[in-house]
Amino acid sequence: MSDDSALPQFLGKWAVPAGVVAIVLLMAGIVLTAPTTHAVAAPAPVTASSSRGPAVTEVAAGGSHTCVLREDGHVQCWGNGAQGRLGYGNTESIGDDEHPSVAGSVNLGAGRSAVAIAAGASHTCAILDDGTVRCWGAGFLGQLGHGNTQDIGDNETPADVGPITLTRPFRTAVAITARADHSCALLDDGSVVCWGSGTFGRLGYGNTQNIGDNETPADAGAVRLGGRAVLVTAGLFHTCALLDEGEMRCWGFGQAGALGYGNKEHIGDDETPASVPPVLVAEATSVSAGGSHTCVIIPRRRRDDLTRCWGAGEFGQLGYGKSETIGDDETPATTGEMNLGGAPKAFALGRFHTCGLNHDASVRCWGRGDFGQLGNGRPRDIGDDEPVTTGGLVDLGPGRTATMVSAGFLHTCAVLDDGNVRCWGAGGNGRLGYSSTKNIGDNETPASAGPVQLLSLQFDAAPTAVADAATVAQNDPATAIDVLANDTDTDGGFKAVESVTQPANGTVVITGAGSGLTYAPSAGYCNTAADEPADEFRYTLNRGSTALVSVTVTCAVTEVPDPVDEVPDPVDEVPDPVDEVPDPVDEVPDPVDLAPDTVITTLPNLLTSSLWFSSTGSFSFASTEAGSTFECQIDSGAFEPCTSPVTTRLRFGNHTFAVRARDASGNVDLTPATRQVVVLGLF
């Protein structure tokens, strides 16, 4: 759609003013620059010099992958490539040891471009410029909507499969949202269709059946909402929609109070959303669904907008400075004001954390923070027992602000005002896009990482290279030279060595995808005379779309002295040997192992986390010596007294369980029995 006249007329007071970017719902009720509008128009370009490449207009953070939409309609994805969720026709991860620029754009079809994107746990969806929807990645629950369970994008591109059949007759999609294993689309007549996993009634069809695995969304029809929708957002196990009369309806998993009805009942599993009264909040203009929580923004005259969040709060993700669940036995209207340091204009909700995009375009995040997903440089939770303001604002770089924020499972990304993207949090599978699997934000700020390199010539400000000098020993195999350390970049952007010229008397190798280099002098070469010129080479930094920056690095090769020729004369006088040698000790007793042995008899090899964040596992163990006592250790904790069996709660991830026996004399097993346990998350 190219102008406001193409937008659906039912929007009423939510109609899009001329020149305002419309909301596109992504993975977690995702954020754009104008949260009071709810239809998809052609993306308005973010201010960025056209000579620096197309700016990013949207970002979608998924379970372990990330996608962006550029102003030219191209889509790029990086992170975990399993099941083809990146859309490049293979299952390779991107961003773990290369930049996303190497992959190029996802093939959406000849002449086709995207106007909106959404990322789930293991799949991705996009609305194209003709109003059709294409999805790719994991299809085992029908979340791709093609009437089968086949993966798409693992050995073909989205262009090879074609669009999803959403309705009959055809209607265009104006918004798309995806979360763990289900997707929903808002159509141009205000109807909503959903497909994928139907557990807990999250699709809203009055049953728990999957849709899209052996039928298309068109076969299921529209979700019965009791009115026309203007916004839809998918959470982990629940879905919410705003209607054109200002009402809000939520359905799916209700155990954590995420639906906001003041109880723990599921909705949509044996009734439709229309059969249940609306959520008891004042007229909201924005709603965002996360892992097991929901947030809304309610406008107020002459005052800051009112914000409400409800659902699971174990990490402080609700923003009330405590870890209580809200909505399971009270309604959101009774929770009081939230102290967020100013009302945000949009929310982005992850699995266990929440971010707000403020009216001044700053970003604040709270909730679970152990992977750096809050972006404050500290791996700790915020908001569980202190105000969220104690975490501070996310440092996006000097003078930089955000136009959009997207929260994934354990990571967060933001589109900046210069059209670049920065990501922080868990770096596994390269989901942050920095040619690494390192976490960002746990002990540094997102500003330190710079923007994600999406193009071979990145469209940030040009870095300036500064001459370096180094001293290398003769015949050294390779010496690392940190040439980037004193290079400058006015906006804290991306810096990398793109090329080098080889020196006359050595070899230079670029390392770490341009993050450094090594120098090795030629065999036998060194500077023997004080006035002999040093060996020299030049390196070139990235510089957007203009001429590359070049400098000279001087390597002063230090001469290694020849070995000493003079050998002292041997000592002529050798003392006589001692005649008397004591008799050897004939028998040396073997050391006695007094400690008992320890064995682990039973343990769970693989656990699945609960709906919240942990799982219970039991471990049994024994000793070879009767009467022994035991001491247990989990991960890097201290050994503590324990008895078999031990039952404990473990968060998702890899864990080490160790146990050692101690006999009645105090002898302890010096080689404790250990086992590895993996806890899988449900996201």
Provide structural commentary.
- The chain is 1% helix and 31% strand.
- The protein is mostly beta strands.
- It has 3 domains: 4-10 and 22-448, Methylamine Dehydrogenase, Chain H; 468-558, Immunoglobulin-like (Sandwich); 598-680, Immunoglobulin-like.
- The protein is globular and about 90 Å long.
- The two termini are 34 Å apart.
- Mean pLDDT is 82; it is low at 1-52, 544-554 and 608-613.
Which SSEs are present, and which pair or pack?
Elements: E1 56-61, E2 65-70, E3 75-79, E4 114-119, E5 123-128, E6 133-137, E7 173-178, E8 182-187, E9 192-196, H1 217-220, E10 229-234, E11 238-243, E12 248-252, E13 286-289, E14 293-298, E15 306-311, E16 344-349, E17 353-358, E18 363-367, E19 402-407, E20 411-416, E21 421-425, E22 468-473, E23 479-481, E24 497-501, E25 506-511, E26 516-521, E27 535-541, E28 549-558, E29 598-602, E30 606-608, E31 614-623, E32 629-634, E33 640-642, E34 646-651, E35 653-662, E36 673-680
Parallel strand pairs: 22-28, 30-36
Antiparallel strand pairs: 1-2, 2-3, 4-5, 5-6, 7-8, 8-9, 10-11, 11-12, 13-14, 14-15, 16-17, 17-18, 19-20, 20-21, 23-26, 24-27, 25-26, 27-28, 29-31, 31-34, 32-33, 32-35, 35-36
